[in-house]
Write a structure and sequence with these properties.
It is built from 26 helices and 26 strands. By secondary structure, the protein is an alpha/beta fold. The radius of gyration is 31 Å and the shape is elongated. The C terminus is likely disordered.
């Protein structure tokens, strides 16, 4: 279909090894069907006239253990489609469960990449929960319509693992399941559309979520490459190119089989427990009739040395070998160590079909089942789990049988039924070939996809969900002014009004924020009471919290909270400082999750004993003492100055283009450094030590007049961006 304006779409799929060709499917648990789907989706969409640009955004990996292909920052696939790799968590390849702590870095660098393009995408589409987290943050900042595809979900996986006897503690330790499910709830809240592969996924798998009713759902089953997975009955003009592949496969199978003239039972999957490979081997091993009837070949990923693999894969592969020995399946069962996805897998389906064989998906549950489509397109009948997406596939294609795989005998019965009934085998084979193109071609998928997303690009994001106006402003604004409130911004009403006029005049080109020791509620209250315009952002509680504005509301920055949580132990600090009688714990309304506050009732020099006690107990925190009476303890990464520097990094704003203004000791770390500092004339004596420091201007005038004096000194409103002072 055509849209009024061709769309710029970003597809986010962060984990796994992703490249445009020769995908290493089955290398590990993270390099499965999702990686193939997103590449094929990008290729299919790039052929659509309604698409201007497609970017597949994934993680940059620079690791000697994997191909250097994954360290290419940009991989151009065609004129419209590129893979963009963004670094986070260093260069080593790590599994998805360990990526959570690095996703804020991915958000930061995604923002920088979007800024470098100078244009917001029309649509962002996240795949799996990790990318969903990143895209939720991006849609908060920019209001970009968000589409999500889960591929697999936390709640159903948690239920399966609990049923299998695992404890919640063990599950959470291995899979970070609590965090994943919480993120999936947030994804549902921020998504404009959730695309599912099957009705089962839409109706059952999302049914456990609290936010299940927020987004609309659209069922669009994936496509399959019909040029690659063509019927075993066809002779293509390039068939000679496949001949060496065919010979290599047969040679590989000969190493395992005593009799090659039997039908081939084939399965291709990753070596993970949920795929229930053990159930298939048990079904085959316990049925002598089936062993006499057919050979079994299991292509379970790529391996070199089982002992060096991840625990899950190692356990599954070891169990496969033990079952092979238990049932004495030597000469009947093939477990090759590797396979080539690009050429060998398509030919495997055709070889199995030529033998009159069957493809088996014995997974406990299958979200979709792309291998079933590939089998059907090749003319190979299937036996599949009845749980999940295969229900839709078998209903549409009539290409095989569904079974309850919990009882392994059911698998053997279904396989024998197809192998021993020539008419049934032929019906399933011909129906699969005919109907795969009708229901599951990539052009059909891409067309339906474009019909779904095109209307979203014309709509603005719901305001209560985002602070998108600030994000869009910061895409263009190259300067910031950040000021304290009490005795800096306010205190002289006439000067304050002059400063407000300046901000309004330059609102489109200069971002405006406040950094204060007040709580967010108190800060908003005093700003309104003094007639101040609401800033673009608030840094509150001496840097312990950050908020972005939307109209008259402020939304907390989860990115800042995640950033400062490092090595923070509030309870230990409170317990440790109870011994100091001169410290008075402040009122509860001033206390925050990332700030502990005290009144101090001794001379300044005695406060150092508190600092020494914290150091003695190896407590790392920021120690902020101001006005000779207030002590605030913050995470080591939290302060006003660090918060401003975080904003500068996230929004790619040079320190040369940021003015910070304050009057007291809790502004000190904000005033020092590379930003342009202004100390107002009515400052506390504790800031005198900064006089003469580079890039700190001491104004003669007080309050907001001092801020304006400093702005004039730096020629801030007129000087070109990036000019050093």
């Amino acid at each position: 279909m055509r849209t009024s304006k061709p769309l710029y779409v970003q597809i986010y799929s962060i984990h796994g090894l992703i490249r445009s060709e020769n995908l290493e499917l089955g290398r590990d648990a993270d390099t499965g069907g999702q990686t193939k789907y997103v590449v094929e989706l990008g290729k299919a969409l790039s052929q659509m006239p309604g698409i201007a640009k497609i970017e597949l955004v994934t993680r940059w990996i620079n690791d000697k253990r994997v191909s250097p292909d994954y360290s290419r920052t940009i991989e151009k696939i065609n004129e419209k489609f590129s893979i963009v790799r963004i670094p986070c968590g260093g260069g080593r390849y790590i599994r998805k469960e360990l990526l959570w702590d690095h996703l804020e870095e991915f958000v930061d660098k995604s923002i920088k990449y979007i800024q470098s393009n100078g244009r917001l995408p029309d649509i962002i589409h996240s795949h799996y929960a990790d990318a969903g987290f990143v895209c939720s943050e991006l849609t908060k900042f920019f209001g970009i319509p968000m589409v999500h595809t889960g591929h697999s979900l936390g709640y159903p996986k948690l239920e399966r693992l609990l049923e299998a006897g695992s404890s919640e503690e063990a599950i959470n330790a291995q899979f970070n399941m609590c965090q994943r499910i919480a993120v999936e709830e947030s994804i549902l809240y921020y998504s404009d559309v959730v695309i599912t592969s099957t009705h089962d996924e839409k109706e059952k798998q999302y049914g456990a979520y609290r936010n299940k009713d927020w987004p609309p759902y659209v069922v669009i089953p994936p496509g399959t490459d019909l040029e690659k997975f063509y019927p075993y009955t066809e002779e293509r003009m390039w068939d000679d190119q496949w001949q060496p592949v065919r010979i290599a496969i047969r040679d590989q199978l000969w190493r395992f089989f005593m009799h090659m003239n039997k039908p081939l039972i084939l399965t291709i999957c990753r070596p993970v427990k949920k795929k229930n490979i053990a159930g298939l081997i048990t079904a085959y091993g316990e049925d002598k009739e089936l062993q006499n009837l057919a050979n079994l070949a299991i292509f379970a990923g790529i391996r070199k040395d089982i002992q060096t693999m991840e625990d899950n894969e190692r356990e599954v592969l070891t169990e496969m070998l033990l079952l092979m020995d238990k049932y004495d399946l030597y000469g009947k069962l093939a477990i090759p160590k590797r396979h080539d996805v690009e050429f060998e897998i398509p030919e495997l389906y055709r070889i199995a079909a030529q033998t009159g064989g069957v493809f088996v998906n014995s997974a406990f549950t299958e979200n979709f089942g792309i291998t079933l489509l590939e089998s059907a397109a090749s003319g190979l009948p299937v036996v599949s789990t009845q749980y999940g997406g295969p229900q839709d596939i078998i209903a549409n294609l009539d290409c095989g049988l569904l079974v309850d795989v919990q009882d392994t005998a059911n698998i053997a019965v279904a396989i024998k039924r197809i192998l021993t009934n020539g008419d049934l085998w032929k019906r399933f084979s011909e129906s699969g070939i005919q109907k795969t193109g009708q229901f599951y071609s990539w052009p059909a998928h891409a067309g339906r996809y474009l019909e779904t997303i095109a209307p979203l690009a014309k709509k603005s994001k719901a305001g209560h969900k985002t602070f998108a106006e600030v994000g869009k402003k910061f895409m263009k604004a190259r300067k910031l002014i950040v000021t304290d409130i009490d005795n800096t911004l306010i205190g002289d009403r006439t000067a304050q009004n002059q400063f407000i006029q300046f901000i309004r005049k330059h609102r489109d080109e200069i971002g405006f924020g406040v950094a204060t020791g007040r709580t967010v509620e108190s800060a908003v209250e005093i700003l309104k009471a003094n007639g101040c315009p609401m800033p673009d952002f608030l840094i509150t509680s001496v840097g312990a919290e950050m908020y972005y504005a939307y109209e008259e509301q402020f939304t907390a920055s989860t990115g800042w909270a995640s950033h400062i949580d490092y090595q923070w132990n509030r309870e230990k600090i409170v317990s440790l400082l109870r011994r100091f009688s001169f410290l008075e714990y402040q009122e509860e309304e001033t206390q925050r999750p990332f700030k502990v506050s005290y009144y101090v009732h001794v001379p300044d020099e005695e406060v150092e004993s508190v600092r020494r006690e914290l150091v003695r107990h190896k407590i790392r925190c920021n120690f902020v003492f101001s006005h000779h009476q207030f002590l605030d303890l913050l995470p080591i990464r939290a302060s006003k100055g660090l918060a401003v520097r975080y904003l500068a990094y996230r929004w790619n704003i040079s320190h040369d283009d940021i003015i910070v203004a304050g009057d007291s000791g809790n502004d000190e770390d904000m005033l020092t450094g590379e930003m342009l500092g202004i100390v107002v004339g009515n400052h506390s004596a504790e800031l005198e030590k900064l006089r003469g420091k580079r890039r700190i201007y001491f104004a003669e005038k007080g309050y907001a007049s001092g801020i304006l004096e400093g702005i004039a000194h730096y020629q801030f409103a007129t000087m070109p961006s990036g000019v050093a002072v």
